[in-house]
Here is the input.
Amino acid sequence: MKERIKILLLGKGGRESALARKILESPRTERLYMAPAAIEGAEAVAVDPLNFQGVADAVEKLEIDMVVPVGAAPIVAGITDWLEETGVKVIAPSEACARLEGSKEFAKEFMADNAIPTARFMTVTSDTLEEGLSFLDSLRPPYVLKADGLAMGKGVLIINSLADAKDTLTDMIEGMFDEASETVLIEEYIDGRECTVTLAVDGEDWLMLPVAHDYKRNLSGNIGPNTPGMGSVSPVSFVDADFMDKVKKRVIRPTLRGLKEAQLDYRGFLYLGLMELDGEPVLVEYNVRLGDPETQAILPRIKGDFVDILEGIADRTVGLKKIQFYPIACAAVVLTAEGFPGTVRRGDIVTGILEAEAEGCKVYPGQLSYDDNGKIYTDGGRVLTVTATAPTMAEAAAKATSGASAIVFDGAYFRDDIGRDVEEDAAI
Ligand code: AMP
Ligand code: GLY
Here is the structure.
């Protein structure tokens, strides 16, 4: 094992910034590179994470020891397999394993084969549209329609009326999300409370990171369209030891056993999107990566050297690692640009980051750009994440919300209820 290593992190966003800060805290990090853009303390490499040859060239030229692909797109497209030949350590699962996120149909069949509790579903293509429409008749509202493939976090629709659901199913099959919705899943609606469990998996053993909750609805009060995430908290008030025992028994162990039986050597982070329904876990989805914005609320709670855990994933030594959490609450509030979650306006000047930090918050850059004079501009939907930690969730939430209000740009929006709908603090 090398004492100090050079790491290349792929991706740009609040989650990537939070991970980069954690990596920079490690005494093991000799140098951190980020592509396509870097935060302070790291060096930018101008390569698109989907340009695998470009990434491989950078690995060779910069003598990188470890690559951490963070977003779903390069992982699902097989970057891990591609880089394997270079001998570099890659902290993400193979293309075959990444079907757990890349194809919702594959994931649901995997859950069914391994008796993992999940919502009742049916898979529909243009050949089976009529059966799909009849299946909708058999369900109660609201209706859940999911594009099979990756659709930039927009492929899940929850629809109240049967007539709208039928029209939308037809539109999806006819190309509403291009190839991603050639196959659509219709799912029974689960009226439960959501939480995210994230595992570091090394093919054999696993470690659990702190549990988080993601606020998916766009607007305060938990209304509006679903988004990839407007904020997150950790810990989660309703998650107790009894629920986590059930998650381990009914979801985690059958998942890892199922992967082995299918000869899928899973090494990387595994995200379990769960619902709690009458005290029981129901698995809604797998992601083959860290969540955004869950990561921004999870990492500040982890004690010790995260690079050591990353290395454990690649070296199959996760079982030897210890993970400890600070017994504190963390709330993460996402600021979004004008137009989000639809087409957003770019180029609005952003100010107030230092003011938010002066209030004791951490501000993680998301979709931002900079000019040569140090001015900062919006450059996408989720512009920044403001996080705060405190002994209780009420204090963390108040601090993060106040920090978010200190940040100013035209069209800025954030939910002012992140962490504020929580009744009590739990320990997990
Ligand atoms: P997914 O990409 O499958 O996680 O879906 C995105 C979000 O849609 C989830 O985090 C839930 O908030 C919601 N959702 C997905 N499936 C269901 C379901 N069967 N019942 C209720 N809500 C769901
Ligand atoms: N916050 C949801 C996700 O990362 O998929």
